[in-house]
Write a structure and sequence with these properties.
The complex is a heterodimer of chains A (429) and B (333). With 429 residues, chain A is an alpha+beta fold. Chain A contains 17 helices and 11 strands. Chain A has 2 domains: 166 residues, Periplasmic binding protein-like II (D-Maltodextrin-Binding Protein, domain 2, 3-Layer(aba) Sandwich); 179 residues, Periplasmic binding protein-like II (D-Maltodextrin-Binding Protein, domain 2, 3-Layer(aba) Sandwich). The termini of chain A are far apart. Classes of the chains: A alpha+beta (429), B mainly alpha (333).
Chain lengths: 429, 333
C-alpha cells in the first residue's frame, strides 16, 4: 500500500509538474514575441502595410536592399488587404503591440494620434536619423498634425477618373480639363447609348469625390470636428445618383457587389471610376483592357477641388527602436534604388531624388506621371481640408449607404438620415 | 497555473491529517476508500487542470470582462467609461441592429427546420438495409465536416454569383433573378442553402435514434394493418422525439451563432462584411463590425450578451415545450 501510494503521489506530482511546465511555456511564448534586440546588437523591427501580392513582392525587394546597407537592422514584414489591415492593426495597437513602422493614410492620422499610438518623428529629424528635405510639392508637411510629424509621405496621388480607354474612344467621348458635371453626365449617357456599358461604377458613394464636389462649392466633407455639409446637400447629390442608377448610366449595384474585391471597371461593368490615380496600376493587372486617366469634372469650368494626397510611413509610439525605425523610413523615402523597384505602386515618389530615379517606361506609369504634371500645370491643386478622428468610419458608412440606395433598399431621405446618424456617432467618439 | 502549484503540497497535508483521526478505528476500509477516492478526484482535477486553466483564462475571464464592458463605452484604447444602460438603449434604437435581428431570425426560422427535415428524410432512407449503405452515410455526412470551412464558403459564393451554376440553372426555367450573392433579398437564402446542405450531423443522430426503435412495435402495427405513414406518425416520430428534441435544440442554438459563412459569402476581404445592402448581416456580423471596424467594444459586448439572453430564452421555451411533444420511455428520464 505504502509503495503504491508513493507511486501515485509521484505520478501526480509529475503530472502537476508537467502541467505547470506546459502552461509556463505557453506563457513565455505568449509574451516573448517582441524582445527586439539580440546579443550581437542586431535590432529587429516589424513593418506592416496593406496591399496585394505584387506590392509585397516589390517591398520585399526594397527590404533586401535595406539589409545590405544596415546589416544590424532586421526587418520582419506583414501585410493584408486594406480593410483587414486596419482591423489587425487596431487590435495589435490596443494590445500595446503595434508594428514598429507601418503604412498610413490621411484618414487615420488624427484617429491614432488621439489614441496615442503614433510617434512624433520630429525628434528623429533633429537627431539626424531622418531627413525631411527634398520632398516635392510641399509634401513634407502632409503628415503633420498640430505641429507633430506623424507620417512621412512615400508617394503622391490624387483623385482621378480612371477610364477604360477603348470604351471611351468607341463612344466618342473626350474628357478635357475643366469639363463640367453637365458635360460628364452627357458623356455617361453617350457611353451607355453607344457601347451598352454603364458610364461609371458608382461615383455617388466615393467620399473623396464628394469631398471634391463640395470643395468646388466652397465647402468640404469634413471640418475640424464634424461634417462640412448639410443634409440638403447630400439629398441633392444622392437624388441625382438615384436617377442615374435608374437610367443605367451608373453600373448595376448588384453586379458591382458580386465582383468585389475586383473593381467594376476591370470587371467591364463600367467604363470608368473615380478613384486614386495610382489605382490604374492595379486595374491594369486586374483587367484586360487599356486604362487611362481623365480629369475631375468641375462646377465652374475651372476648379476641380483637387489636392495631392499621399500614403505615408508612420512609426508607433511604443517602438523600442525609434532610431532604427527613423533610419528605415529615411532609406525608404530617399534611396533612389527603392524608387526603381517600387515604381508608382504607392503613387508618384514623394521625394525629388526618387522621382528622378524612376523614369516610367510603360504606358500606365507614364500616364500617371503625365496626369499629376497636368494638375500642376493647370494650377488646380489646392490645400487639403481636415480629416478628423472618425473619418475612416464615415467613409465606410458613406460607401455602404450609397450602395443601399443604389440597390433600392433605402430611399434618398432614409439614406441621408442614416448617414448623418452614423457619422455623428463616429465623429463624436 | 496557480491551482496546479498549490494543490500538490495541499494533498500531502490532507493525507497526513486524516491518518491519526481514522487510524485506530476497527475497520480502516471506509477511511482508506475515502482517501483513495479523494486522491483519485484530485488526480482527475490535476489532469483536467490544463483545460480548467484554459477555460478560466480564455473563456470565463473574457466573458466576465465582457459583461462589464457591456455597460461601458470602450474603444480598446482608452479606459472603459461606465455608461450604464446606454449601450442597450442605443442598440434598440439602431435600425441596423433591428435589421440584423430580423435577418438572423429569418435565417434560424427558415434554415433550421429545413435542415432537420432533410436530415430526418435522408436518415429514414438510410436506416433501411441496402447495398452501399456505409458509402451513402459517409457521403451525406461529409458536408458537415467541411461545410463550416472558409474554402467552402468561398466556393458557395462562386456558385451563387451571376452567371454561375445556380444563375444558369434558374435561367433554364425562365427565372432571371441573377446571382443571389449580389441581391440583398436573396443572399440570405444562399446561406440557408449552405446550412441545409450540412444536414449530415443531425442525420447521424437521427440514424442512431431510429436504430433504437424496437422492431416489435412495427411488426405489431403491421399486423394491425397500419400503413407506412401511420407507422411513421404513431411509432417512429414519438419514439425518436427525444432525439428530435436534441437536434432541434442543438441546431437552433447553432444557427443563432452563424458568422463565418455569412461573413465570407457576404463579402469578406475587400468587400462589405455584411453583404449587399446588409442583406446577409446576421447578428454576429454586425457585432463584429461594431467591435472591430468601429472599435466600439462596449457596444459589441452588450450585443453579445443580448444574444446570449435571447438564445437562453429560446432554449428555455424549447425545454418548456418538450412536455407537450417529447416522449421519454418509462423510467428513461
Amino acid at each position: 500500500m505504502g509503495t503504491s501510494r508513493n507511486v501515485e503521489r509521484r505520478t501526480i506530482l509529475k503530472a502537476a509538474g508537467a502541467t505547470a511546465a506546459t502552461l509556463g511555456l505557453a506563457a513565455t511564448t505568449g509574451c516573448g514575441g517582441d524582445s527586439g534586440s539580440s546579443a550581437d546588437g542586431t535590432v529587429t523591427i516589424r513593418y506592416a502595410w496593406w496591399g496585394a501580392d505584387d506590392r509585397a513582392e516589390r517591398i520585399n525587394k526594397t527590404i533586401a536592399l535595406f539589409h545590405k546597407k544596415y546589416p544590424k537592422i532586421k526587418v520582419t514584414t506583414d501585410f493584408q488587404p486594406y480593410g483587414d489591415f486596419w482591423k489587425k492593426f487596431n487590435t495589435q495597437a490596443s494590445g500595446g503591440n503595434p508594428p514598429d513602422v507601418f503604412q498610413n493614410a490621411i484618414g487615420f492620422l488624427r484617429k491614432y494620434d488621439a489614441k496615442n499610438v503614433l510617434l512624433d518623428l520630429n525628434a528623429q529629424v533633429k537627431a539626424g536619423n531622418l531627413s525631411m528635405d527634398g520632398f516635392r510639392a510641399g509634401l513634407e508637411t502632409f503628415g503633420e498634425v498640430d505641429g507633430k510629424l506623424l507620417g512621412v509621405p512615400v508617394g503622391s496621388n490624387s483623385m482621378a477618373l480612371v477610364i477604360d480607354k477603348p470604351v471611351y474612344t468607341k463612344a466618342g467621348v473626350k474628357p478635357a480639363q475643366g469639363w463640367t458635371w453637365d458635360d460628364f453626365h452627357a458623356a455617361m449617357e453617350k457611353i451607355r447609348d453607344k457601347t451598352g456599358r454603364a458610364g461609371d461604377s458608382g461615383m455617388y458613394g466615393v467620399m473623396y469625390l464628394y469631398d471634391l464636389f463640395l470643395r468646388q462649392n466652397g465647402k468640404a466633407f469634413f471640418t475640424e470636428d464634424g461634417l462640412g455639409f448639410a443634409e440638403a446637400d447630400l439629398t441633392d447629390w444622392w437624388t441625382k445618383a438615384k436617377q442615374g442608377v435608374e437610367q443605367g448610366i451608373y453600373a448595376n449595384a448588384k453586379k458591382v457587389a458580386q465582383v468585389k474585391p475586383k473593381s467594376a471597371v476591370s470587371a467591364e461593368l463600367a467604363a470608368g471610376e473615380f478613384t486614386w490615380d495610382n489605382f490604374t496600376v492595379r486595374y491594369t493587372s486586374e483587367g484586360k483592357s487599356e486604362y487611362g486617366l481623365a480629369p475631375i469634372p468641375t462646377t465652374d469650368g475651372k476648379h476641380t477641388g483637387q489636392y495631392l494626397g499621399s500614403l505615408m510611413l508612420s512609426a508607433s509610439k511604443r517602438t523600442q527602436h525609434p532610431k532604427e525605425v527613423a533610419q528605415f523610413i529615411d532609406f525608404m523615402v530617399h534611396e533612389p534604388e527603392v524608387a526603381k523597384i517600387m515604381g508608382y505602386d504607392r503613387g508618384v515618389p514623394a521625394t525629388q531624388a526618387q522621382y528622378d530615379a524612376f523614369k516610367p517606361t510603360d504606358e500606365v506609369a507614364k500616364s500617371i506621371a503625365a496626369y499629376e504634371e497636368s494638375l500642376v500645370s493647370a494650377g488646380v491643386l489646392e490645400k487639403i481640408t481636415p480629416h478628423p478622428n472618425g473619418a475612416d468610419i464615415c467613409e465606410a458608412a458613406f460607401l455602404r449607404i450609397a450602395e443601399e440606395l443604389a440597390l433600392g433598399t433605402r430611399s434618398v431621405d432614409e439614406a441621408v438620415k442614416q448617414f448623418f446618424t452614423e457619422s455623428k456617432t463616429a465623429l463624436s467618439a | 497555473m496557480g491551482t496546479t502549484v498549490t494543490h500538490a503540497p495541499a494533498m500531502e497535508g490532507l493525507t497526513q491529517d486524516s491518518e491519526p483521526r481514522h487510524g485506530p478505528v476497527n475497520s480502516p476500509r471506509p477511511a482508506a476508500l475515502k482517501r483513495r477516492r479523494r486522491r483519485e478526484n484530485l488526480a482527475g482535477y490535476l489532469f483536467m487542470s490544463p483545460w480548467i486553466a484554459g477555460f478560466l483564462l480564455l473563456t470565463a475571464g473574457p466573458m466576465i470582462a465582457s459583461l462589464y464592458f457591456a455597460f461601458t463605452d470602450y474603444n480598446l484604447f482608452d479606459a472603459p467609461k461606465w455608461i450604464g444602460l446606454d449601450n442597450f438603449s442605443e442598440m434598440f434604437a439602431d435600425p441596423r441592429w433591428r435589421h440584423s435581428v430580423q435577418v438572423t431570425l429569418w435565417y434560424v426560422v427558415v434554415g433550421t427546420p429545413l435542415k432537420l427535415l432533410a436530415a430526418l428524410g435522408v436518415a429514414l432512407l438510410l436506416a433501411q438495409k441496402r447495398r452501399g449503405q456505409a458509402f451513402y452515410r459517409a457521403a451525406f455526412y461529409a458536408p458537415s465536416l467541411i461545410g463550416a470551412s472558409v474554402s467552402i464558403a468561398i466556393v458557395w459564393k462562386a456558385i451563387f454569383s451571376d452567371d454561375a451554376v445556380v444563375d444558369r440553372t434558374q435561367k433554364l426555367f425562365g427565372i432571371s433573378a441573377g446571382g443571389w450573392t449580389g441581391d440583398p433579398e436573396l443572399i440570405i437564402y444562399s446561406l440557408v442553402a449552405l446550412t441545409v446542405w450540412q444536414f449530415g450531423a443531425p442525420m447521424v443522430i437521427f440514424l442512431a435514434g431510429l436504430k433504437q426503435v424496437p422492431r416489435e412495435l412495427y411488426e405489431a402495427a403491421e399486423v394491425d394493418g397500419a400503413g407506412t405513414w401511420r407507422r411513421f406518425w404513431n411509432i417512429t416520430l414519438p419514439m425518436i422525439s427525444p432525439v428530435l428534441f436534441f437536434n432541434v435544440l442543438l441546431e437552433t442554438i447553432h444557427s443563432f451563432q452563424i458568422f463565418s459563412s455569412a461573413y465570407i459569402v457576404g463579402g469578406g476581404a475587400g468587400g462589405n462584411a455584411c453583404g449587399p445592402a446588409d442583406g446577409s448581416m446576421v447578428y454576429t456580423c454586425y457585432l463584429y463590425v461594431q467591435g472591430f471596424e468601429n472599435s466600439r467594444m462596449g457596444l459589441a459586448s452588450a450585443m453579445a450578451w443580448m444574444l446570449l439572453v435571447a438564445v437562453a430564452l429560446v432554449t428555455a421555451v424549447l425545454f418548456w415545450s418538450q412536455k407537450r411533444w417529447v416522449h421519454y420511455e418509462e423510467g428513461a428520464r
